[in-house]
TrEMBL record:
This is Phytochrome-like protein cph2. Residues 24-278 form the EAL domain.
């Protein structure tokens, strides 16, 4: 207590706030230890072409396994990783791990060389020294085709790098860039045409709104149309209900990911999920007959 008030003299500590501070420093300590031990796991979520129901690639998503067997999602700790700078080290681990997994699946014949692996990258991580060189070394280590790697970056993270050369350095490697959570950040449309984007992901909040708000569809249609004008491929995230897929496909959204096809899963469970793809494809086709 004395220490805390010494550091932040002007904060009035209610018992609740005090407790929150303590919880937070406990969280920081255990995260630090977990990062040191590489005590994390990546789950993978398939991304599919909507019309063909063919596999486009995967998004790698961080999970923090607990002694209880539970896998904690990044929502609970990603901001702490950012603020402490731990995201630099852990994010680099994630890129290496995802590229290594891509190579394993490729060797097993489960995927093709053009199947992509998307990895999320935060603003702080992009700002770490020699980021692009380290990505290049990782690609090299796993003999991975640079265009099979997609870095997913949010609008606000991209905007923070606009004064630097980092995005161009990444593009020069041949790695693809995806604008994540589109519509939730800066939303300055001017940036869309200034940044060398390959993909844009419509945030899942828009997708979730479709059923409730008719206007959501109008917004989604405009996003897709705009992206297409700029030559950016569009992916819908958070698709839980297959009913909306024909509309998305009709507007020109190529791909999707979401619980409708699969939740993010541990690598070892992916083989079975991919085997199911054939069955899903057959049953899915009927919805699209009037589009062809
Ligand atoms: P994101 O990149 O936008 O990832 C999509 C999130 O939506 C994931 O949450 C995923 O599990 C969830 N999701 C996918 N399909 C559905 C669906 O149909 N319904 C619903 N309700 N949710 C769905 P997750 O795994 O909790 O990750 C949260 C965020 O944490 C990610 O958002 C990303 O910004 C960040 N993150 C995850 N892994 C990494 C990483 O390795 N590095 C960095 N820097 N950030 C990461
Ligand atoms: Mg993402
Ligand atoms: Mg997203
Ligand atoms: Mg998100």
């Amino acid at each position: 207590r004395a220490k805390l008030s010494g550091r932040s003299r002007h904060i009035f500590f209610t018992p609740e706030l005090d407790q929150a501070q303590r919880d937070r420093s406990v969280l920081i300590t255990s995260l630090r230890r977990a990062v040191d031990r590489q005590d994390f796991e990546l789950f993978y979520q398939p991304q599919l072409l909507i019309k063909e129901q063919r596999l486009l690639g995967f998004e790698a998503l961080l999970r923090w396994p607990q002694d209880t067997g539970e896998h904690v999602s990044p929502g609970a700790f990603i901001d702490v990783l950012e603020e402490t700078g731990l995201i630099g080290e852990l994010g680099e681990w994630a890129i290496g791990q995802a590229c290594g997994q891509h190579r394993i699946w490729l060797r097993k014949g489960l995927i093709g060389p053009a199947t992509t692996m998307s990895v999320n990258v935060s603003a702080r991580q992009l700002g770490t020294p020699h980021f692009a060189q380290r990505v290049a070394a990782t690609l090299d280590k796993h003999s991975m085709r640079p265009d099979s790697l997609i870095l997913e970056i949010t609008e606000s993270a991209l905007v923070q790098t606009i004064e630097t050369n980092i995005i161009n350095d990444i593009k020069d490697l041949g790695v693809q860039i995806s604008l994540d959570d589109f519509g939730t950040g800066y939303s300055s449309l001017a940036y869309l045409s200034q940044l060398p984007l390959d993909h844009l992901k419509i945030d899942r909040s828009f997708i979730a709104d479709i059923k409730r708000f008719p206007h959501a569809v109008t917004v989604i249609k405009s996003i897709i149309a705009l992206a297409r004008t700029l030559g950016i491929r569009v992916i819908a995230e958070g698709v839980e209900d297959g009913d909306i897929l024909p509309m998305l496909a009709k507007e020109g959204c190529e791909g999707y990911q979401g619980y409708y096809f699969s939740k993010p899963l541990p690598a070892r469970e992916m083989a079975n999920t991919l085997k199911n793809l054939e069955t899903v494809r057959l049953s899915h086709y009927a919805n699209f007959i009037d589009l062809d």
